[in-house]
Design brief:
alpha+beta; Immunoglobulin-like; four-stranded mixed β-sheet; four-stranded antiparallel β-sheet; flat; DUF4397; DUF4397 domain-containing protein
């Protein structure tokens, strides 16, 4: 009987080699054939185990999530993505969570008691009427990014769950579009495949799993091959997950900027 670990290893290798075979399909036929043969080798192992019934029925290909924090806390970080807002302070239920956060800055994750929490932002150093608020349902053990988005005349707080489903040996990547004057865009690997298509402002993708690698990414207006933002040397490490954020302005200052944050 194939063990859980054997089945996990075979399926992950089959998946990894299939990705590589697809990547090289039109670029390098020899590499395509090389990786497809490797994919077929491990896919056949999996199929043989299922046909013979020699497989543990409770096998699961997805790694288990981290257990909840013992203290019942959630973890929250702040991202300032409003291109024309000045420094801000962030409070949760009246207690300061972060101060003097500037455009393009991300705080570390910080513990926040689980439950319904009211998150407010104020101009730095002034705690009168909040300029934006959001109600965060914080689950114990969960990670969140609260992003300050929009123009300063109409700021918003956007809550993002940083809850990647990890696949052992693979890197997860997703994309979130936070540039208020940029139309729908695609995120692509430079000179290669498009990873995500037609992503609009404040939209987010699911995670896509790739082999660990260092890649050059670029953001393109949907349907074109003209990069309006290049994000070089993005290191994707196995067993980790990342969010790529596009912030700033397409026409104006500060210009478009890419942020790559490790999640969880």
């Amino acid at each position: 009987m194939a063990s859980k670990e054997e089945m996990r290893r075979w399926i992950e290798k089959a998946y990894r080699y299939l990705l590589l075979a697809d990547y090289y399909k039109y670029m390098d036929p020899d590499a395509h054939i090389h990786f497809y043969r490797k994919h077929f080798k491990y896919a056949r192992k999996v199929a043989k185990a299922y046909r013979s019934g020699k497989v543990m029925e409770d096998w699961q290909p997805i790694a288990q999530q981290r257990p909840p924090r013992e203290d019942g806390s959630a973890m929250v970080r702040i991202l300032h993505a409003s291109p024309d807002a000045s420094l801000v302070d962030v409070y949760a239920d009246g207690k300061r969570l972060a101060r003097n956060v500037k455009f393009g800055q991300t705080t570390d994750y910080r513990a926040l008691p689980a439950g319904s929490r009211k998150v407010d932002i104020y101009p730095a150093g002034r705690k009168g009427t909040p300029v934006a608020s959001v109600r965060l349902s914080a689950a114990a053990g969960q990670h969140y990014t609260v992003a300050v988005v929009g123009r300063k005349a109409r700021l918003e707080l956007l809550t993002v769950e940083d809850r990647p489903t990890r696949r052992r040996g693979m890197a997860g990547i997703r994309f979130i579009h936070l540039s208020p004057d940029t139309p729908r865009v695609d995120l692509a690997v430079t000179g290669a495949n498009v990873l995500f298509e037609e992503i609009g402002y404040k939209e987010r993708t699911d995670y896509l799993f790739l082999p660990s690698a260092t890649v050059n990414l670029e953001v393109r207006p949907t349907g074109t091959e003209r990069a309006v933002l290049k994000i070089p040397n993005v290191k994707l490490t196995a067993d980790a997950a990342y969010t790529v954020y596009a912030i700033g302005l397409l026409k104006g200052k500060p210009g478009l900027r890419g942020l790559v944050l490790k999640d969880g």
